[in-house]
Every structure is written in C-alpha cells, then in structure tokens.
Design brief:
Layout lengths: L21 H8 L9 H11 L11 H6 L5 H13 L1
C-alpha cells in the first residue's frame, strides 16, 4: 500500500498545479516559498522520487548522437535538401 505524502491527493483526480494559485500549490506540496524545503524533507523526497535530473546517455558515440539522425524520415529530408541544391 503506498505511503501517504504531500503530493498524493485525496481523490484520484489529477491536480492541475499550473492553474492553481501559488499559495495553494505550496500548501499542497507542504513547502514554504520563502525558505524552501528543510534538508530532511529534501533527503526524504530524493529517497522517494529520485534525483531531479535527466539520466546520462550511455553507449558509443555513434549510437547516442549519429544513429538518431539516420532515422528514415530524417534521411529523406536530408536527401531531398541535397537534391534541391
């Protein structure tokens, strides 16, 4: 059974935080906009949700950077651009 926390809502309805007033969002998330989160709460949320970071890509250079460019649609765009020159 999931642990109740500041981000879990009472109902299954999705909250539209972007449409709420700042004070209401801060109250729901239990954060003080002037001081931020206490260190112990930061550690707790990192343990619960993980780091707020994009994971680094791993793999060879060609697989990470060049392979996506060789997508069939991108290849068609490149060939048609060259044909127009």
């Amino acid at each position: 059974m999931p642990k109740e926390d500041a981000i879990t809502t009472e109902s299954s309805e999705i909250q539209a935080y972007h449409a709420m007033p700042l004070e209401e969002v801060c109250e729901i998330l239990q954060v003080d906009p002037e001081k931020g989160l206490p260190d112990d709460e930061v550690e707790s949320r990192i343990q619960q949700f993980g780091q707020n970071a994009i994971p680094k890509s791993r793999g060879p250079f060609w697989q990470v950077y060049i392979a996506p460019i060789m997508n069939w649609l991108i290849t068609i765009y490149i060939l048609s651009s060259v044909a127009l020159i």
